[in-house]
Amino acid sequence: MSRFIATSAIRGAHSVIADAEATLKDALQKMGPETPVAFTSTSYFLPVIFGFTGQKITKLGDMPAALQHARSLLPPVPRDNLWLPYLGETLDAGVATLFAEEIIEGIRFAKGQQPEQYNGHKLNGPIDDVQMRSWGIQMVDGRMPGFAAIVGAAKSNEVAVEIVRQLQSRGQLVFLCSQSNGRSIIDQLRESGVDLGYDTFTVTFGTDTYSAVYALGYATRAALSFGNVAAGDIRKILLYNKFRCFAFVLALGQVDDIKYATAAGAINYGFPVIADTVIPNILPSGVTRYAHVVSLPFDDLPGKDDLEKAQRLVQRCVEIRGIKIKIAQVPIPVAYGPAFEGEVVRRENLRIEYGGKGSMCFELLTTKSLDEVEDGKITVVGPEIDAVPDGAKVPLAIVIEVAGRKMQTDFEPVLERQIHHFVNGAEGIQHIGQRDIAWLRFSKSAVNKGFKLKHLGDILHANYHNHFGAIVDKVQITLYSDPEKVKQLMGKARAIYSERNIRTAGLTDEAVDTFYSCSLCQSFAPTHICVINPERVGLCGAYNWLDCRASYEINPTGPNKPVAKGKVIDAAKGEWEGVNKFVYENTQMKTDRFTLYSIMDQPMTTCGCCECVMVLLPECNGFMLVSRDDYGMTPCGMTFTTLMGTVGGGLQTPGMMGVGKYYLLSKKFISSEGGIRRVVWLSKNLKESMEEELKAVCEREGVPDLLDKIGDGSVATTVEDLLPLLEKKGHPALTMAPLI
Amino acid sequence: MPVEIPVEKWAGKVNEVKLGGNGRKSIVIGGETTLPFLKIDGAMPHRPAIAVEVDDVMPADWSPHLIAAWGDALEDPAVWAKKAAEYGADIIALTLDSAHPERGNTGAAEAKKTVEKVLAAVDLPVIIIGPDVAEKDNEVLIAASSVGRGQRLALGNCVDKNYRSVAAACIADGHVAIAKTPIDINLAKQLNILICDIGLAPDAILMDPTTGGLGYGIEYTYSVMERLRLAALIGDKMTSMPMICNVGEESWRQKEARATSGVPATWGDHQERALAWEGITAVSLLNSGADIVVLQHPRTIALIKDAISKLMA
């Protein structure tokens, strides 16, 4: 807590209260206690006082009680030798200030001095209920993030206009009040011919700082209308605004005691205060979600001129308040949507390709800190498309840097994998592969419509905000088409990929205390639930533990929920109390136990989406694995399709289980029954497509020649044929402990 | 030998939702602590209610039997609503179909007028349904919401695309939201969670799980509803909302209710067959947990009223 700010705010509060007391005394004497008091068309009385206390002020005579309450909140001005004024005291001083200001404005209304007449114009004053409700709905449904209460005057008229334009373009309401050095932003905008009013989302409150209380009256009423909160339940009103109303105070020009005091009032609502002058910072979060007070001296802001500085100022305000960006339409010259995802760009229509055979292309997404990333910055380093002849093959590096308060390095690969899906949405653009085997083909028709390399950046920027806004606040993209540069960066990228591989491999079940569930398939298999652990990919093969974790961060009400492991029941079989409890509660009480590493004792259930089915072959003392794309007969006497009828739908069948094919490679692959040594038969296509990986696993498990001993559909489709082969080759399963 | 009837003890309870009030007749639905009509296991404190569909424009493609039954009333929603009340409707379900971009594209101003008129014509609780295009729904429902402030209307449809706006209007004006999802228990639950997150109280939400007519997916609807209800009875608060089913529209648009020629003679009299279609669909869905059925034909109102009385007895 800044001592300077606390002292100024408390001093300011004292002066506003003294002013209110004097004004009220005078008004009571001259006009009498029965004089009615009301703001413009509202049924919320003096809304801040009503929200905080439930008191309905309708006449001057109701005011002394509220003002006494304000006085009682007021801490003494810190003495010079007191070094630790509390944040709490400053906040109380802020509330006292708001009460006093609202009382002063109420008296002005009683005297007919509000809304203010200024320079021949009538200012708006407080927002009426009808408008508050209309904007309130937009704030709830997300079309309008919140408001910016601008206090003071900008460096110049041009800067004032640019700030307001930037805020309007983000759908932010703009409230205008107060002045600095005798100038008000209201003057600046009016002189520049800016249309002010409800239609343009700009509201003029008044030319002194007291009128800023109308912003908080608006916020209070929004919470009362849309937050299901009763007047007087101030804690809920303030929390509603902290989490739902993305508002902030922007102090332009010098900040005096009264502005500090009023700002302290705003901070109670979770609204941070940003100043364009040098004042102390209060950076830790707490009452506000992020920083409380941030000083961004205008001339020190980056930017080549004042307009760029103004843009930067608004951008920083948006960040400080944590306002999320949504981009309704991807700004590219070709159509965009899921319909184009499967499109192939054939040779006849090929204009340019990046990567592919004999060329280089890679994509890399990394995390940076918030101030290292400039949102929406797209840079092309090297030749653009128009500088490259038809049919050329050019190297490319897509380097994405993201920043976000909830971003984690573990999410990088999850986000990076989306490039494929995002880029393929563009008509006439084909994307294949990932990491350093990425390959892009642009069609002639897309390029003729004006599609350029930089539009890849637009696609990615928009999509990361729209789909991953919960974890990503800022995205900048650099596209390198300069061969030297790509070559140089490729080494760096590969080092990062390899680091990620190692990290993923090192991610063990023991290392985490939370698994994730997946209930995506409960629509058709209501009693099935997946529990996904780091060492076992989801049975559909589509979700691993990291994906689920990211999915939960992005959409906490979605299909992936954290499952606390809880106390271990059986480490060898992989059974935990927390998992059992979760499974019981989420399978309509159909399944009460789940083991993660056993197929014989309470195995996991299957929805019906599994990549492979694993079945016990008792005669062989082992298991067979048949994959979904193997249409042939298997030694258990059933094809994959017939097996699905037995094991799918959430049934727990010991000796049978649906698995993802990569589970075969895990150290936890049916570790309770002896792991890969128990595999006696494997679909041929699986055996071939995963040959390298499987060999490595056999090696790791100390049975390097195992793969040759495992049967497949080309040598045996019955147990009678399989068993002699296993015996002949000396398959280890035959001599292992009996499964039954 | 005496047979002991096994009794299931449920932990959960369906929310009680009130519609109407504030000068208007009110009705409470929900509150079950048992499967539909199974009084051995628990209580079913409120009868399922019958809502009758009233459109703001003359329906273009309705069956001649429906048109004949309602007559001139179809031309004026206020008259129509009055007549529906006479036939025994518990609730009026006013559909603002004219706001559909292809069926008139009327806006907030027209919606306000129609809602005002219907609210003035009857004192029954009222449901307002938009044209089923999320954007237009928002426009007309928010207008309707302010007109009916404090009269606890039910506003639908509140879907994943527009739930924030509809929920916000319900909070601000004290209405009930109809959360509609496409025949999926997870989506139904998720939408309830999202609406509650906005701040609408759970007892201000009805679920429309989306209904298939008899022979057109009713068994799927039935299972989804049954499972939603089972989940509620097990104690899942986010599936404990009473359910509303749009029976009339789903039944009358099927071939069996429409076809007058070129069908086997064994299908019998056209009108009786069409009425049976609506009646059987309604009874089936009541048995799977519907708390409100929206009907179209006057005769079905009487039929279902009688069926509910018998099932409740």
Write the topology of this structure.
The complex is a heterodimer of chains A (740) and B (313).
Chain A: H1 3-31, H2 47-53, H3 63-73, H4 87-110, E1 117-118, E2 121-122, H5 129-141, E3 147-152, H6 157-169, E4 173-177, H7 185-191, E5 202-206, H8 213-226, H9 234-244, E6 248-252, H10 257-267, E7 273-275, E8 293-295, H11 306-321, E9 350-355, E10 361-367, E11 378-381, E12 392-394, E13 396-403, H12 412-416, H13 418-424, E14 429-432, E15 439-443, H14 444-448, H15 454-468, E16 474-480, H16 483-506, E17 514-518, E18 530-532, H17 545-554, E19 562-564, E20 568-570, E21 575-576, H18 577-586, E22 612-617, E23 622-627, H19 640-647, E24 656-659, E25 679-682, H20 684-689, H21 691-700, H22 706-709, H23 719-729
Chain B: E1 16-21, E2 24-30, E3 49-55, H1 64-70, H2 77-86, E4 91-95, H3 108-121, E5 126-129, H4 134-147, E6 154-158, H5 163-173, E7 176-180, H6 185-198, E8 205-208, H7 218-234, E9 243-245, H8 247-252, H9 255-258, H10 270-287, E10 290-295, H11 298-312
Parallel strand pairs in B: 3-4, 3-10, 4-5, 5-6, 6-7, 7-8, 9-10
Antiparallel strand pairs in B: 1-2
Could you walk me through the main structural features you see in this protein, from its secondary elements to its overall organization?
The complex is a heterodimer of chains A (740) and B (313). In chain A, strands 5-4-3-6-7-8 form a 6-stranded parallel sheet, with helices on both faces. A 4-stranded mixed sheet of chain A has the order 12-9-15-14. In chain A, strands 10-13-16-11 form a 4-stranded mixed sheet, with helices on both faces. In chain A, a hairpin with a 2-residue loop joins strand 1 (117-118) and strand 2. Chain A has 740 residues and is an alpha/beta fold. Chain A folds into 4 domains: 3-110, Orthogonal Bundle (Helicase, Ruva Protein, domain 3); 117-321, Rossmann fold, CATH 3.40.50.2030; 338-504, Bifunctional carbon monoxide dehydrogenase/acetyl-coa synthase(codh/acs), Chain M, domain 3; 511-735, Bifunctional carbon monoxide dehydrogenase/acetyl-coa synthase(codh/acs), Chain M, domain 5 (3-Layer(aba) Sandwich), CATH 3.40.1470. Chain A has 23 helices and 25 strands. Chain B is of the alpha/beta class. Chain B has one domain: Dihydropteroate synthase-like (TIM Barrel), CATH 3.20.20. Chain B is built from 11 helices and 10 strands. In chain B, the strands form 2 sheets. Chain B has an 8-stranded parallel sheet with strand order 8-7-6-5-4-3-10-9. In chain B, strands 1-2 form a two-stranded antiparallel ribbon. In chain B, helix 5 packs across helix 6. Classes of the chains: A alpha/beta (740), B alpha/beta (313). Chain A binds chain B through residues 133, 136-137, 140-142, 225-228, 240, 519-520, 522-523, 526, 557-559, 588-589, and chain B through 138, 142, 146, 162, 164-165, 167-169, 171-172, 184-187, 190, 193-194, 197-201, 227, 230-231, 234.
